[in-house]
Amino acid sequence: MEVVFWIGRILFGGYFILSGLNHFIMLNQMAPYAAAKKVPAPKLAVIVTGLMLLTGGLAVLTGLYVRLGLWLLVIFLVFVTPWMHNFWAVEDPMQRMGEQVNFFKNIGLLGAVLLLLYFWS
């Protein structure tokens, strides 16, 4: 079962690491999207959230400062999910569907992070 645990850590931590890196690689595309969602200081917000994702993912992957990393992911998911993926306010059906998928994906990720926090006590 230890192999399963490591595969899970690699996949779960890797997901957040890649998402965090994407915030930096796609900064010039993500900042205007954040601005369109009325995020204050959108470029800085994308950088800070990228650092939160990267740090959280690395914590899960490496096993270093895991609780801190998981709390960063909780904070990210709790605040970013309803702000950036507010599907209930989107009129275009295709855009609404995309935002709804991302909203519920993040809710599922939040549940997984909270479970890890419980078991990593």
UniProtKB/TrEMBL annotation:
<feature type="transmembrane region" description="Helical">
    <location>
        <begin position="102"/>
        <end position="120"/>
    </location>
</feature>
<feature type="transmembrane region" description="Helical">
    <location>
        <begin position="44"/>
        <end position="64"/>
    </location>
</feature>
<dbReference type="GO" id="GO:0016020">
    <property type="term" value="C:membrane"/>
</dbReference>
<dbReference type="Pfam" id="PF07681">
    <property type="entry name" value="DoxX"/>
</dbReference>
<keyword id="KW-0472">Membrane</keyword>
<feature type="transmembrane region" description="Helical">
    <location>
        <begin position="70"/>
        <end position="90"/>
    </location>
</feature>
<keyword id="KW-0812">Transmembrane</keyword>
<protein>
    <submittedName>
        <fullName>DoxX family protein</fullName>
    </submittedName>
</protein>
<feature type="transmembrane region" description="Helical">
    <location>
        <begin position="6"/>
        <end position="24"/>
    </location>
</feature>
<keyword id="KW-1133">Transmembrane helix</keyword>
<dbReference type="InterPro" id="IPR032808">
    <property type="entry name" value="DoxX"/>
</dbReference>
